[in-house]
Amino acid sequence: MEGNKQKTVLITGASNGFGMEFAKLFAKDGYNLVLVARSVERLRELGYSLQDEHQLQQVCIVQSDLSRREAPQEIYDQLKQQGVQVDVLVNNAGVGVHGFFHETELDRELDLIQLNITSLVHLTKLFLKDMVSRNEGKILNLASIVSFMPSPLMAVYAASKAFVLSFSEALQNEVKDKNITITALCPGASDTYFFKRADAENSRAANGPLSSPEDVAKDGYDALMKGETRVVSGVLNKVQAGISNVLPDSALASTMRFQMEEKQDGTDNRIPESRL
C-alpha cells in the first residue's frame, strides 16, 4: 500500500517460520523492514529479495541473540542512531524446551524465559514509549494455544506463553484510548522448526495435524490490522481454546501431557484438538 512506504516494521525471529512469513506480508503491503535474528545470512537473503520484489525503500538487517539481556537495548539504540522509526513491532522470536522439568537443563529454561518473556517485555517497553508519544503504533506478540492451559513436558514454555497473553491483553487495555493496537496471536502446532529445536520432534503433537506458517502469519497480520486484541489461529485451536474455559486445569494438563509424550509405533494419535 502506498501509505505504508514511510512505515517500518521490526520483526524478531525473522529468519524462518512465522517471522519469515510476517516479513513477506508486511513487505507486500509496502512496509520497510527491520529483520532481527541470530542467522544473518538468512536475514540478508530474505530481506534483500523482498526489497527487490516490492521496491522497499529500506531494509535493516540486525544480527542479535535475544536470549542475551543486553540485546533489546542494543537493537533500540542502533535503530535510534540510524534514525529508524519503528511503527510496528512483531515480537515473534521464541523457543521451547521439552521434557520433565526435574530432568531438563536449567540454563536452557533460563534462556527461554529471557527470550520468550524478558526480551519481549524489554522491546515492548522501549518501542511502546515511542508509540505513545506519537499516539500511533502496532504491536503483535506471539502467544500460543498453550497460553490457555498447563502443558506438562513443556511446563516453562507454556507458562511463558500464558504470560505473553496476559501481558498483551493488559497493555491493550492501558492504551485503549490511544491510536495503538496490541494483539496476541495464539497458534497451535505448526510446521516450523519449533519442535525440533525443543527436542520434541517425536511427540504426538509434532506428528499430528500441523498448521502452515503462512496461514498462521496471515491470521495474525489480519487481526493486527483490524485492531483485535487476541486471535486464535485455526478452527480446531479455536475449539480447544473454548474448551479450556470449561474443563478443569487437571483435565487440560492430562490432555496436553498425552500430546507432548513421545508417539510410539503402533499407537494412535487421537485428541487432534490438543495441539501446542
TrEMBL record:
It comes from the Bacteria. Pfam families: adh_short. GO terms for molecular function: oxidoreductase activity. The keyword Oxidoreductase applies. GO terms for cellular component: membrane. Keywords: Oxidoreductase. SUPFAM superfamilies: NAD(P)-binding Rossmann-fold domains (SSF51735). Belongs to the short-chain dehydrogenases/reductases (SDR) family. This is SDR family oxidoreductase.
